[in-house]
Structures are given as structure tokens and as C-alpha cells.
Design brief:
Structural class: alpha+beta
Number of strands: 5
Largest sheet: 5 strands, mixed
Strand content: 25-35%
Shape: globular
Radius of gyration: 15 Å
Oligomer: single chain
Length: 149
């Protein structure tokens, strides 16, 4: 089957996916200052902690997209919230509904966990991503600040 018409399977990340996840992340978000071994170690930690979920988009055994999440609590959200830490689809596979399928899986997880909110941050320069999130019903409602320590 041609990868252009092959079925997309959204599933939990497995240990065999760790290096592919690193490759997708690098392709979508740019170079990482980490060796693959460090990324594999982080993936193992995330897999072992029930607060974290990583879903991959798989086409014929190849990871072509991913979404990483963490479930958190907040005083004003008694059921907590799910934060999307990253969503990416390899360029040749964009505009095929894969990002939407990944976000739908996150929203399904929120329902399964009785969580009241899904939130995410997106870099100022990612205007195409902003339009995508707004199309899915997400609203811009804050700036995100960070400080590297």
C-alpha cells in the first residue's frame, strides 16, 4: 500500500518508537542538544509515569507524527487538566488530518480521565499551527513565560 493512501493508526508510544519519536521531534521542532540516548531515557521515564502519555501516528510501522501530554492538577481545576507539550507531524504527511487525529486522541484521553481542560502553548512564529488549533476549537487566552534555570 502506498504511504499516501495507507491507514493512519494512532497508538501509545512503545519502546521501539523512542528513536523515531526523537527523529520526528528534531524534524518538526529543530535540533535537540541531546543525544538519542538521553531522549530514550526521557521516553522511558515518561512511559513509566502514568501522568505522561505520548501518542504516535503510525503508517505501516513508521512513526510520522506524535503528541506528548502531561496531566496536572490546579487549584481552580478540581479535575485537573492535560497539557500538550508537543504536537508534530512530519512535513510529507501534513494536511492529511493526522494532527487532528492526534488531538482527538488527547481529547478522548481527557474524557477518559474526567479532566476538564486541554491546554497547549505554541511559539509566536508557528502561525499555521495557531490557525490549526483555532480550527479545532482552541482559543488564545494567555502568553506563556519560561525561564531556563
Amino acid at each position: 500500500m502506498d504511504r499516501n493512501t495507507a491507514a493512519v493508526h494512532i497508538r501509545d508510544m512503545e519502546s521501539r518508537d523512542y528513536r523515531s519519536v526523537a527523529a520526528v521531534w528534531r524534524e518538526v521542532f529543530g535540533p535537540l542538544p541531546l543525544a538519542d540516548e538521553s531522549i530514550v531515557s526521557t521516553c522511558k521515564k515518561m512511559k513509566a509515569d502514568s501522568r505522561y502519555r505520548v501518542f504516535v501516528a503510525d503508517i505501516e510501522g513508521a512513526v510520522v507524527g506524535l503528541v506528548t501530554t502531561v496531566e496536572s492538577l490546579a487549584i481552580n481545576l478540581p479535575n485537573g487538566f492535560i497539557k500538550v507539550n508537543g504536537l508534530g507531524v512530519l512535513p510529507p504527511f501534513r494536511h492529511r488530518g493526522i494532527g487532528r487525529m492526534l488531538m482527538e486522541r488527547v481529547e478522548k484521553l481527557a474524557g477518559e480521565r474526567n479532566v476538564s481542560l486541554v491546554e497547549l502553548g505554541s511559539g509566536f512564529q508557528r502561525t499555521e499551527a495557531h490557525a490549526f488549533y483555532e480550527h479545532l476549537g482552541y482559543r488564545k487566552n494567555a502568553f506563556r513565560f519560561s525561564k531556563r534555570i
